[in-house]
Design brief:
The protein is mainly α. 70% of the residues lie in helices and 0% in strands.
Length: 210
């Protein structure tokens, strides 16, 4: 049991889900800004953006549930975080999603800076989403071929939502930013875990190409 009386399995599922759904905020916010084509925050309507992309959101959530074996309570975290409800998109949040790469220039809301933050933020948050999803699927012991196919649909939908990189680009970023650390000899991953991550990478590469 955890300190608040919940089973360890429930607590672990919540942590995994928060790792998966946290980056979703960056995906939808950068996507809503990119969709304007002006990169002016005054032109952004996240409500309108989400209203027109229900199919992508449904595919993403269904794929996560299938691959990661999240139950209904765990899946509700996606809504509890608020990213899938209308809200304001600010320059400060884009700075957060982009990892502060731009620093804090005087014209933080200028279209050129906003566009750059969206580009970096989409790359970063999509890569984090993929890693968290694969980690959750491996933890759930979902068979790699089935799980990776579900996550391929998740990644395709997420890339469409973001208006950013292609799935194959995100796969490359994930390999160098996350996978190499899982597979290095001194990592905390078990031999079985390393084998599972390799299997997921193999199927995703077969799906999206090198």
């Amino acid at each position: 049991m955890t300190g608040d009386g919940r089973p360890v399995e429930e607590f672990t599922a919540e942590l995994l889900a928060r790792a998966v759904f946290g980056p979703l905020g960056g995906v939808v916010e950068t996507g809503a800004v990119n969709a304007t084509g002006t990169w002016r925050l005054a032109d952004v309507s996240l409500g309108d953006f989400l209203d027109g992309r229900g199919a992508e959101v449904d595919v993403l959530l269904a794929g996560v549930r299938s691959a990661c074996a999240f139950d209904s309570t765990t899946m509700s975290i996606a809504w509890d975080l608020g990213w899938l409800r209308p809200h304001d998109v600010t320059a400060a949040s884009l700075l957060l999603w982009s990892g502060g790469l731009t620093g804090v220039p005087a014209e933080l809301e200028s279209p050129a800076v906003v566009r750059h933050m969206c580009q970096v933020g989409a790359d970063l948050q999509l890569t984090r989403l993929l890693h968290a999803s694969v980690t959750a699927a491996v933890t759930a012991r979902t068979e790699a071929k089935r799980g990776a196919r579900a996550l391929a649909a998740v990644l395709t939908a997420a890339c469409t939502l973001s208006g950013g990189p292609r799935p194959s680009d995100v796969l490359r970023l994930w390999r160098v930013a996350h996978l190499v650390h899982v597979l290095r000899p001194g990592s905390d991953a078990s031999d079985a875990g390393r084998s599972a991550f390799r299997a997921y990478e193999h199927v995703l590469t077969a799906t999206f190409g090198d």
